[in-house]
Design goal:
Layout (H helix, E strand, L loop, with lengths): L2 E7 L5 H9 L3 E5 L6 E6 L6 E5 L11 H13 L3 E7 L3 H11 L6 E6 L1 H6 L3 E2 L1 H8 L2 E4 L8 H14 L11 H13 L9 H9 L3 H7 L3 H18 L3 H20 E2 L8 H9 L5 H18 L1 H28 L4 H19 L2 H16 L2 H15 L7 H7 L3 H6 L7 H10 L9 H12 L5 H20 L24 H35 E4 L2 E4 L7 H13 L7 H9 L5 H11 L8 H11 L2 H13 L4 H11 L2 H29 L5 H19 L6
Parallel strand pairs: 1-4, 1-5, 5-6, 6-8
Antiparallel strand pairs: 2-3, 3-4, 7-9, 10-11
The structure holds guanosine-5'-diphosphate.
Length: 705
């Protein structure tokens, strides 16, 4: 049978990086039985009969979160042949807490101290031999990112697994605890699984109910050991669980004092110095706003735009369409097919692909902010603010992932323990603009606002505002009552990411965008082209001369009244909004097919001109707001359904998003009308009513249930 090595460690310790380095592409990903926590396994590189099991990132073996339950069950019940415990060398104190618990399991263990490149750079020294002696297991320095020490760590773990000889734990609790533990072991002599006595007795001392249940202890036995526990508690004047936790930390502090030499004796690292500014109570938010502004400004308004303009105007405007059309006509292709390919496919897919350069730039920046450690700070900063709005700081991570695509963003909400917070996060994640919405933002910014600097960043802030307002609105509802959950997150040290990793992350996200353009968008563009070019002419079905007689136009006109109060009651914009449900890129793709049709010489600027005739400025912004906030694409709705595991909740989520989008867009448009001197009584009244309703919801006292 294959040897099993479990990879265990804290979140953010570099586990994924190490797992990828150890297994290469031989990975199998699934779920742990019964829960939605990801399970990854892979054959160790160069070893056919060694399997590495990647346990979820955890801080302890107390079964509080689904991750901890899964990890603990695997370690205790399935007993891997060895544990490779990855610890973050820049954060030893927090990381060794888990280590002290793993060491009690009676399973051979090798410790890989990761991030050694950062430790060394800080000028700190970890005395590995001493640490190894103190902890009673082999310790190896690695840098998962740079690949140093990785092979040695794997070899050490395999060696330990083959020997099947766990070293005995070195840590001893204080006299009275050890005394109680010895009593527990003695009393349960025959009930404790061989080799695991230490772990079980500590857990029983902590009165872990799952362990009591698992061992099937009789009430008498429990009462018997309870005497020992209670007397120890009396003696140390604390409860059993806290006694254990305290002693573990005291021990760790002691170990670190002996094994870790800081260059900077005050313990203030460069990361701490940066954090003093970046997470400062007053500066944090302005800095965050400036960073996000710059990110969007650079990617959407400057560098990205130069490339996108070229792609849209020249590549998909002047170069490809005439060339393809010339070629197709030359080989005698039927006229309708030429139109389908040039106007439908190139028009629609091209309009979407044209935005790839902007996305590449945006993703590069986001990858950088994530990899250098800044995003973790944002979650920390946002926790303070989110809490005031009834949301958890943990909600920010799904939203961050959602900047790429809402589907994985929504799925990332799984790590949130509190059901209330999780549901709120699932509902609000798609408000943050995903990559598919970027083309819509860029189109509106470019065509209607002459590329004004503030449009793209403002879309991001509209998203965040929608999230915060939703927190306030939703928490007033009875179904969202509940306790606030504590937020634990460690801040990794800042470090410079490698260009290779940044490029890889940028490419992975962009590639899935490009793939979508070649599949979903391609198909949608063909359907839209067909529907916008065919219709009933004089009672007969056929190709129409003018799109206004097409099936799509009639359908669009039928629903356009819905959007009239929002300022985009024309059939083209209505249809574009609907096709956005299939994929948000379709909003742009649809305009590409509808407006780009026919003219061989057309290029972006002309499409823009046509768009300008279609909207007022505030109508265009309302269109943007509605499309940013309304029901997300079908794939994301599917993800909401999966995470909510309830049709009713899914309906609520999508309904809420759409109503909020409608209300916000209506306010934008009607106030715009009012200030440009075109306001109508009903429209202004409706807008004021919405604003008043919103303010009322905010100030209304929560009714006690
Ligand atoms: P996980 O949450 O434990 O799976 O952690 P990841 O593997 O995602 O790593 C968290 C962050 O630390 C990522 O940005 C990694 O690039 C970075 N990282 C991982 N290992 C190292 C390392 O050895 N040195 C440095 N400098 N960074 C690392």
């Amino acid at each position: 049978m294959a040897l099993k090595i479990a990879l265990a460690g804290n979140p953010n310790s570099g586990k994924t990086t190490l797992f990828n380095a150890l297994t290469g592409s031989n990975q199998f990903v699934g779920n742990w039985p019964g829960v939605t926590v990801e399970k990854k396994e892979g054959a160790l590189r160069g070893e056919t009969d060694v399997v590495v099991v990647d346990l979820p990132g955890i801080y302890s073996l107390s079964p509080y979160t689904a991750e901890e339950v899964v990890a603990r069950q695997f370690l205790v019940n399935e007993r891997p042949d060895a544990i490779l415990n990855i610890v973050d060398g820049t954060n030893l104190e927090r990381n060794l807490y888990l280590t002290t618990q793993l060491a009690e399991l009676g399973i051979p263990i090798v410790i890989a101290v990761n991030m050694m490149d950062v430790v060394t750079k800080q000028g700190d020294v970890i005395h590995i031999h001493r640490l190894s002696k103190e902890l009673g297991c082999e310790v190896i320095e690695i840098s998962a990112l740079k690949g140093t020490g990785v092979a040695e760590a794997a070899a050490a773990a395999v060696g330990k697994a083959k020997m099947r000889m766990p070293e005995s734990h070195r840590h001893h609790f204080c006299g009275s605890v050890e005394h109680a533990l010895a009593h527990i072991e003695e009393a349960l002599h025959h009930s404790l699984p061989a080799g695991q006595e230490r772990w079980y007795s500590v857990k029983l001392f902590e009165r872990d109910s799952r362990v009591q249940e698992y061992l099937g202890l009789s009430p008498e036995t429990i009462a018997h050991i309870e005497e020992d526990i209670a007397s120890c508690e009396r003696e140390l004047d604390d409860d059993a669980e806290s006694i254990i936790t305290n002693e573990r930390y005291n021990y760790i502090t002691d170990v670190i004092r002996r094994c870790y030499t800081r260059k900077n004796a005050s313990g203030v690292t460069i990361s701490d110095k940066i954090d003093a500014i970046v997470t400062n109570r007053w500066l944090a938010l302005p800095i965050f706003a400036a960073v996000m502004f710059l990110t969007y400004y650079i990617s959407v308004t400057t560098i990205g735009t130069w490339a996108t303009d070229w792609a849209n105007d020249v590549l998909f405007g002047e170069i490809i369409p005439p060339a393809v059309e010339g070629f197709l006509t030359g080989i005698g292709t039927a006229d309708w097919l030429v139109r389908l390919i040039v106007d439908g496919i190139i028009g629609g897919v091209g309009a979407v692909l044209g935005f790839v350069p902007q996305l590449l730039v945006l993703f590069f920046f986001l990858a950088f902010l994530e990899a250098c450690g800044y995003m973790a700070r944002i979650a920390f900063i946002m926790d303070r603010i989110f809490r005031k709005f009834g949301l958890s700081g943990k909600s920010f991570i799904p939203m961050l992932i959602g900047t790429g695509c809402s589907v994985p963003g929504i799925m990332a909400s799984r790590t949130i323990e509190s059901e209330r917070d999780r549901r709120m996060t699932v509902i609000t994640t798609s408000f943050v603009p995903c990559s598919a919405k970027l083309p819509v933002i860029a189109l509106i910014a470019g065509a209607l606002f002459g590329g004004a600097w503030w449009v793209a960043p403002s879309a991001y802030f509209v998203g965040i505002m929608a999230v915060l307002c939703s927190g306030l609105i939703l928490k007033k509802l009875k179904m969202f009552r509940g306790e606030d959950a504590a937020f634990v997150m460690e801040l990794p040290a800042y470090h410079m990411p490698t260009v290779r990793n940044l490029l890889r992350s940028m490419w992975e996200r962009s590639w899935s965008f490009i793939k979508k353009a070649g599949t979903v968008i391609l198909l949608s563009s063909m359907v839209i082209w067909f529907l916008s070019n065919f219709g009933f002419v004089g009672g007969r079905f056929g190709m129409v001369e003018d799109m206004s007689g097409s099936i799509l136009a009639s359908f669009g006109s039928m629903i356009a009244w819905i959007f009239r109060p929002l300022g985009f009651g024309n059939w083209e914009a209505s249809v574009a909004t609907l096709t956005g449900l299939v994929a948000k890129e379709n909003v742009v793709g649809t305009f590409g097919v509808l407006l780009g049709a026919g003219e061989v010489s057309e290029h972006g600027a002309e499409v823009w001109e046509l768009l300008r005739q279609m909207f007022t400025a505030h109508g265009a912004y309302a269109f943007l707001v509605f499309n940013l906030l309304c029901a997300p694409c079908f794939a994301a709705i599917g993800a909401i359904r999966r995470e909510m595991q309830s049709g009713k909740w899914t309906l609520f989520a999508v309904g809420y998003q759409t109503v909020l989008a409608y209300a916000a867009a209506l306010v934008v448009n009607q106030l715009g009308e009012l200030f440009t001197g075109h306001g109508s009584v009903i429209g202004t009244f409706a807008a004021l009513l919405i604003i008043a309703g919103f303010i009322y919801t905010l100030v209304r006292k929560e009714r006690t249930a």
